[in-house]
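Structure (tokenized):
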């Protein structure tokens, strides 16, 4: 049953990433150990496309720390989509820490 839900989520992502489009999912973890997780690379590189069993299907998964926060980023491209725009968005991402110590994510551009 769980696998069916994962497959449905992957199909939903595939249906919504149209030609020339990109899907970017970002999650900031709180209260987890970040030892052993690399710092955010400058500039961000997507690495190799892989199949991800977490329900996103084929795409690029990144894990890195920024301002002491663990970030997980998934990127999936639609047909005929270049990487340049997605990388520009990811490289413009700014992680901030508020006075309440909660992370904030900002994309500029």
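Design, position by position:
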């Amino acid at each position: 049953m769980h696998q069916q839900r994962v497959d449905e989520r992957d199909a939903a992502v595939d249906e919504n990433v149209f030609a020339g489009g990109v899907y970017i999912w970002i999650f900031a973890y709180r209260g987890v150990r970040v030892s052993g997780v690399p710092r955010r690379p400058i500039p961000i590189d997507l690495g190799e496309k892989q199949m991800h069993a977490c329900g996103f299907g084929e795409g690029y998964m990144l894990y890195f720390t920024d301002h002491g926060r663990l970030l997980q980023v998934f990127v999936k491209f639609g047909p005929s989509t270049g990487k340049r725009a997605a990388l520009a968005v990811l490289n413009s991402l700014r992680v901030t820490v508020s006075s309440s110590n909660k992370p904030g994510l900002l994309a500029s551009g």
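Reviewer-requested clarification: The two ends are 42 Å apart (CA to CA). The chain has one domain: 2-107.
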